[in-house]
Design brief:
319 residues; Rossmann fold; 2 domains; 7-stranded parallel sheet; globular; binds flavin-adenine dinucleotide
């Protein structure tokens, strides 16, 4: 009956989202008076999950699953849910989890609510709060099926440490035939990804050209942040397409999003507005982004950003 959480890893190491969904699953388990079981696939240090409320880990070790395969991953999670008699499955909002969730929902005859931002507001009827209309509204969604699947929005719940410990056991699901296999993965960068980053520093057309990105990268480095950009910037080839954020790019739900020389067009805001704190640096006081910002600096990026870097470096040197 325990709550089952799928905790994602990359090359054996857990992603930040894994600890967030584990924290969330623990909160739901407390509501339901039950425990948390995690399913991991080729993860290394499963004991880490105990720090976030997981009681038991079902660890799948299988080289066929080194690369993500939605069918196979969904099948493994379904078998874990069946074994545990689970009524609630918790996933992250990563691209992979959003891909496998509908397959899992079919397998478990479960209702699936994505983009959930809080623990259930009610467990009978089972009701969750989620974002709607590209983060412009919230809706309360009732899941009426016996088994429920919750996709938690990135950074919506946060990490909640727990003093417990997790027992681990090997789990060997029967895998379906892998219709598609990944032969190799060539990552564009080893830097912190936009999805995993606590802080994202993003540049727009106001930066005039790719030669001016040094200060964006330096600011990101000082803050331990990921770099991102607006769509025209990647369209112009100033930055790689993997950095394009917004409605048609990657979604950002960071704790801090710093937008530099970005006007704040609706299509850009649609993808970044889930970030907790938004800081805007723009010369134009009428730029639409200021209406969505928590903090704004009306000023020239070429003056403000170097000054900010200097201050941050001085601050860090004192720590
Ligand atoms: C279907 C569709 C989908 C789209 N999807 C996306 C998407 O996913 N993501 C996205 O970003 N866009 C998207 N767009 C494009 C979007 O509409 C805007 O055109 C785009 O976001 C503008 O990018 P920008 O803010 O970098 O450039 P601009 O609109 O040119 O704004 C540049 C800003 O920089 C400021 N500036 C200029 N000089 C300085 C300086 N020295 N210091 C500080 N500020 C300065 C200006 O005041 C201005 O506000 C989409 C458009 C369509 C039609």
């Amino acid at each position: 009956m325990s709550v089952l959480v799928y905790t994602e890893s990359d090359k054996g190491s857990f992603k930040k989202a894994a600890f967030e969904v584990a924290s969330y699953a623990k909160a739901v388990a407390n509501q339901l008076g039950t425990t948390v079981t995690a399913i991991t696939i080729n993860a290394n240090d499963t004991a880490e999950l105990g720090n976030y409320g997981v009681d038991k880990v079902l660890n799948v070790t299988n080289s066929q699953l080194d690369n993500f395969n939605a069918n196979a991953y969904a099948s493994a999670i379904k078998q874990a849910a069946d074994q545990e008699g689970t009524k609630v499955v918790v996933l992250s909002s990563s691209a992979n989890s959003k891909y496998l969730a509908p397959l899992l929902a079919v397998g478990l005859s479960a209702g699936y609510a994505s983009n959930v931002v809080e623990i259930p507001t009610n467990t009978s009827p089972f009701t969750v709060k989620r974002t709607a209309f590209t983060n412009k509204a919230f809706e309360l969604t009732q899941i009426n099926t016996e088994v429920k699947i919750i996709g938690v929005s990135n950074n919506a719940f946060g990490l909640v440490e727990n003093s417990g410990s997790a027992s681990a056991e090997e789990f060997s699901p029967t895998l379906p035939e892998l219709g598609v296999t990944v032969e190799s993965v060539d990552k564009a960068t080893d830097k912190v990804t936009i999805a995993d980053a606590e802080i994202v520093v993003s540049g727009g057309r106001g930066l005039k050209g790719p030669e001016n990105w040094g200060m964006i990268e330096e600011l990101a480095e000082v803050l331990g942040a990921a770099t991102a950009c607006s769509k025209p910037v990647s369209d112009l080839g100033w930055r790689p397409h993997g950095e394009h954020v917004g409605q048609t790019g990657k979604p950002v739900a960071a704790n801090l999003y710093i937008a530099i020389g970005i006007s704040g067009a609706i299509q850009h805001l649609a993808g970044v507005s889930a970030s907790k704190v938004k800081v805007v640096i723009n010369t134009d006081p009428e730029a639409p982004f200021f209406k969505a910002a928590d903090y704004g600096v009306v000023g020239d990026a070429f003056e403000v950003v170097p000054a900010l870097i200097e201050k941050l470096k001085a601050f860090k040197a004192q720590q």
